[in-house]
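One thing: could you explain this record?
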Amino acid sequence: MTIGPFEYVKSINEKSSVVHTRDYNPFLANIALSYSLDTIMFANEMNQYPNLPPVCQYDFLYQSVRKGKRFNKWYKESDTPYLQEVMDYYQYSKSKALEALQVLTQEQLRDIIKSLDTGGQ
């Protein structure tokens, strides 16, 4: 029986036992633990030792993190309208385009879309 990656995080947080750590994914566990203020430093500590065997990483987190329920939302990129158009028009990176979107007016955005329209189907 395969245990999902978030079952390991749940077992670290709630101190429930997990029989085997064969499928333990340190990357996902560190991301999940980095969303909580009281576990972010433990996740960062494990990020500093990526070559450590997964079993050792799991054991460290299991023994170090205090018992508690942590319900944190995962970061999701918001679907920003006109982002790709601004990136294409100004040849900006994503972060620069997001900054530009804050200062551009609706009329300027319409002009950008109009200039990028190549016609056709």
